[in-house]
Design goal:
heterodimer; A: alpha+beta; Ubiquitin-like (UB roll); Rossmann fold; five-stranded mixed beta sheet; elongated; B: alpha+beta; Alpha-Beta Plaits; two-stranded antiparallel sheet; 24% helix; binds iron/sulfur cluster; binds FE2/S2 (inorganic) cluster
Chain lengths: 556, 157
Amino acid sequence: MSDSGAGMVSWVLNGDPVESPAGMTILEAAKAHGAELPHFCYHPGLSIAGNCRICLVETNRSPKPAISCSERISDGLEVQTHSEKAVEAREGVMEFQLINHPLDCPVCDKAGECTLQDYSFDHGPDESRFVEKKNIRHTKDLGPTIKIWGNRCIVCTRCIRFCDEISGTGELCVVARGDRSVVDVFPGIPIDNPLAGNVVDICPVGALISKDFMFQSRVWNNEHTETVCGGCARGCNVTVETNEGFVKRLMPRENTDVNDWWMCDFGRYGWRYAHDDRRVSVPRRGAEAVETELEAHRDLGELVRGAWGGSKKVAIVVDPFLTCEEAHLVGRVAAGTGATVGGWLPPSGDELTFPGKFKISGEKCPNRRGVEAVLGQEVFGSQAKAVESMLNSGGVDLVIVFAGFPNADCPDALASAVGKATARVAFTLFDGAWSEAADLVLPSASVFEKEGTYVNEDGRLQRVRSKDRPGDAQLAQPGLHSASISSPWVTSELVALQRALVHVGDAERSLSAAGVFRQLADSNEHFKGQSHRGIPATGVPLGGLAPAGVGEGSES
Amino acid sequence: MGHDAHAEPEKKPGKLGLLGKAYLPAIAQGLLHTLGHIVKWDHNTLNYPDEKRAPFPGYRGEHRLTRDEQGREKCVACFMCSTVCPAHCIEIVAEEAPWPDREKRPKIFNIDMMRCIYCGMCEWACPCEAIELTEVFNIPVRTRAEKIYDKERLLSN
Ligand code: SF4
Ligand code: SF4
Ligand code: SF4
Ligand code: SF4
Ligand code: FES
C-alpha cells in the first residue's frame, strides 16, 4: 500500500488494521500492539530458530499456520492470533511438548516462572493422551555452576544459540535424535564461560538449573528489587531477589544500552559477601562495641566538628562503592574541614568483550565515575597519590576511610597508609589493617543495602536500590534500626554522614537519598535537572560524562 | 411497641410476691431438675481424659508427615503447603535428597502448631500425599517452643 509511511507496513491484526515498521516479525509487531504470543525458542537477544512451533498463527498468506517468530510482516498481511485454527494448532504443539515432559513442577526450580507451565495452563490439554512410557534423558552437571535435567528440555536451542552468538564459546550442542535429543556439552569441555549463568535464565523450562540457586527458594516467594550490579563499572541492570531479607539470586534486567538481557557470572554469584559472618555489623570504638549507632554517629560528628573550619589536617579516603549521594556528603565534610580527598580502586580484572557485544569492565567497582563527578576531582587518580604521601608523611590529625570493598580485597596502599594519622575513622565491610587501628569503626553498607545512584563507565546515571532502603526507613524514625539485607542490621554511610553533618550544624536534618540527590543536582552541573524520580528504570546518560553516541543525550 | 405488627408483645416483668423474693422455690426447682438427671443417668459429658470421644470422620487434628514404603518421608519440599497455608505457619528449607530416585527433600520442616488454624489446606495442596491431618488433638505442652513441631516430630505423629 502506497499510503503507508516510509518504512511502515500496513497489516491486519485480529481484524484491526495496524501499522508497524517494516522488517518486524509478526510476533514482535503483534507484541508492540498488545497481543502477546507464546514462544519458547524466540528470544529478542538471539537469532531466530523457529523450532518450537508454539507461536503459530493463522495468516492469509498460506493455508497452513505460520510461525510468527520468523514470519515477517508485509503490506496486506492478515493475522489471526486466536482463530480456531491458530488455537488448535498451538494446542497440538503443546500436547507434543508435554508428551515426554516429566511434569515434575513440584521439585523443579523453574516452577512459577516457567513458560511451559504458563502456556500449558493457557493452551494445554487437561489430560495427557500419551499412555506410552516417557523418555528418560540424562541429568548431569554441564559445568561448575550448571546442571541439566534432560527430561525437562524441550530442545528450543536457546542455550546453544547463546553460547554460539553471545558468549562465542559454543560449549553446548544437541545430542541424539528425535524425541531423545537433549542438550549436552562436548566430552571433557564443561560450560564455564564468564557468561554461562545466562543460559539458565533463558532456558524457558527448568532443564538448565543454576547450582547456586538450586532448591534455595521457590521463585514466587522471592521479593524483587530493581537495582544495578556492583561487580564492575559496567553497571549491569539487575533484579536482586531476596527472601526474608536474604539474597537468593541476581537476575539480569533488560537494558539495551548497557547489558542487553545478560550479566556475567562474577556479578551474578558475587553477592555472598553481603551475608558473610565476618562482616563488620556493629560500630566500635577501637575494639569495644558502641551501644547504639546514634552514639557512634555522634562520635563521628564530634570528630568532624573538631576539625571544622580548616584548623586541622584532615584526609578522607573514599571508595568507589559509595553512591553519588554519599560522595556528595563526603564532599560537604571535605569542604567544611578543608580535607584532602583521595581513594583507591580495587584490584582490576580483565576487560572482556564478547561476540554478542556484551562487555565486562576491568574496573571492579561500580561508581568511580560517579564519585569523581560529584567531587569534581580525580580522586582515584592524581588525588590518590596526594593523599598517600600526605598520610605517609605523618602529621594528619583526622583520617576518615571508606573501605566498602567486597570480600575485603582492599588495596594494600590503603591499608598501610591510614595507620599514621592521629584520629582514625573507618567505614568498612570487613576488618583489616585499615580498621584494626581505627578509633572509630563504622559498618559500611553493601551494594544491596544502599539507596542512591551510580554512574557507570559510560557516564550513565542509574539507580541503586535496596529492599529495605536503610537510608530512608531509618531517617523516618530516627534511632530505629532498619532491617537490612544482612543481619544484624547495617546503616548506610548516607545516614552516618548526615548525622555527623547535623551534629556539626552544617545541616538542619537528615534527608532521604532522594533529598540528598536533590542537593547534588542543585550544586553540580553534571547532575543538573536530574531527580531520583526522573531517572528511568534503564538509567540516563549524564551531561558532560557520556561519550558521544551512547543513549539519547542528557536531559539537562 | 415495635412497628412490626407480628412482633411479640413486650413482656412486662411481673411483680414478685414474698415467696418469689425469697428465691427459695426457684432454687429448689433447679435442684430438683438436676437431681432428675442424675437419677435418669442420661448425661452427655464424657469423663475426659479417661474416656475419649471417637472423632468425627474428617476431623482435622495435628499434622503427620507420611512415609513411603522404604520409611523415608514422602515430602519433596515443593513448598505447596507453605504457599497455600493461610496462617503462614509452615517453614521449609529444602536440600538435595541423598537417594537416587528423589531429587529434593526437606532439611527443615517446621509447623508452628500454635499459629495453625487446622484448616487442612496443606493436606489438599500436597501433590505427594506427604502431609495429612490426623485425629490427634490433645497434646498438651509446657512451653511454647514445644508446639513448634519439627520434621521428626511430624513424622512420628
Ligand atoms: S536446555 Fe533449556 S534452553 Fe537449552 S534447549 Fe533445552 S529447553 Fe532450550
Ligand atoms: S559485567 Fe560487571 S556489572 Fe555486569 S554483571 Fe558482570 S560484574 Fe556486574
Ligand atoms: S492446617 Fe491450615 S493453617 Fe495449619 S498448617 Fe495446614 S494450611 Fe496451615
Ligand atoms: S506440599 Fe507436600 S510435598 Fe510439598 S512441601 Fe508440603 S508436605 Fe512436602
Ligand atoms: S517461538 Fe516461534 S517457533 Fe519457537
